[in-house]
Design brief:
The chain is an alpha/beta fold and 301 residues long. It has 14 helices and 9 strands. Helix 9 runs antiparallel to helix 10 and helix 12 packs antiparallel against helix 13. The radius of gyration is 24 Å and the shape is elongated.
């Protein structure tokens, strides 16, 4: 590792809970740090450890080789990047802005173009993980942008992320990847909530159901279905679509008996019925996932 005096200066913008933890890890890794936040109170600890306080996002950007932003949403990012004293009005030529926020893919594309007009660069680096992971430097970073820029950024990103996945050469790809990760998490929470509610209303042991859920997400069969759906391997049949529909209907009925509507099961019912209508009744029941892809794989079968 190089000495701290040889490290790039980092301008960090946005010191919410996640941003503060990330900035603190960057500082601990020996990077000179310039920070900006709407509330200067949040910067005090970092300032006490040697960081400098910038008067505006432009001032932070003008002092840095890398600018990292950690902001709430599209509106906040636009204001901080494009405002009269925004990042783009101060960023150095050749400097790299790493956006770690969860933003729309459209805005990510806009940021890439806008930075290009100032001879600076933008790469998307949204992070996955909660505040304790950020504090421990154990976030997962999803990076996308021009390959040489990503390579330059990786040592810095490693200060707060224990895992780095390069998901593409356009920033929009990382923004999309983050939304996909959040969709998976939200869907899992919805499934967990429906499962626990059903079990509770049926008088089952919460300990048993919690164990069942924990085991499911770690079970080899779950990984097998990821591979099966990814590879579109529906001819290796473990359980047929017609059998799957039968079970889904049983689930819906049983839940209704305890005054619960399983919205996920209702969606599965619709997709399985569509799959069977296409003649896929004897395919593996995971073929219902193909409905979202348009079902082209079976169009000639």
């Amino acid at each position: 590792m190089t000495e701290s005096k040889e490290k790039s200066t980092v301008g960090f913008i946005g010191l919410g809970k996640m941003g503060f933890a990330m900035a603190a890890n960057i500082q601990r890794a020996g990077y000179p740090l310039v920070v900006w936040n709407r509330s200067t109170e949040k910067a005090k600890v970092l300032l006490g450890s040697g960081a400098r306080l910038a008067e505006s996002p432009a001032a932070a950007a003008s002092a840095a080789d890398f600018v990292i932003s950690s902001l709430a949403d599209d509106d906040a990012v636009r204001a901080v990047v494009l405002g009269p004293q925004g990042i783009l009005s101060g960023i150095r030529q050749g400097a790299v802005h790493i956006g770690t926020s969860t933003i729309s893919p459209k805005l990510s594309e806009e940021l890439e173009k806008m930075h290009g007009k100032t001879a600076s660069h933008y790469i998307a680096g949204p992070v996955v993980g909660r505040v304790p992971a950020a504090e421990a430097g154990q976030l997962v970073a999803l990076l996308a942008g021009r390959s040489d820029l990503v390579e330059r950024a990786e040592p810095l990103v490693a200060a707060y992320a224990s895992q780095i996945f390069v998901v593409g050469d356009r920033p929009v790809q990382a923004s999309t990847a983050k939304l996909i990760a959040n969709f998976l998490g939200a869907s899992a929470m919805d499934l967990i909530g429906q499962t626990l509610t059903w079990a509770e209303r049926s008088g089952m042991s919460a300990t048993f159901v919690s164990g069942l859920l924990s085991g499911f997400f770690a079970h080899p069969a779950t990984r097998e279905y990821v591979a099966k759906i990814n590879d579109r391997d529906f001819d290796t049949v473990g359980f047929t679509a017609s059998g799957g529909l039968k079970d889904i209907l049983l689930m819906i009925e049983a839940a209704r008996d305890v005054q619960l509507t399983l919205s996920s099961a209702e969606a599965l019912r619709t997709k399985l019925e569509m799959a069977i209508a296409k003649g896929w009744q004897d395919k593996d029941w995971s073929c219902f996932a193909e409905i979202d892809r348009g079902g082209a794989i079976f169009s000639s079968r």
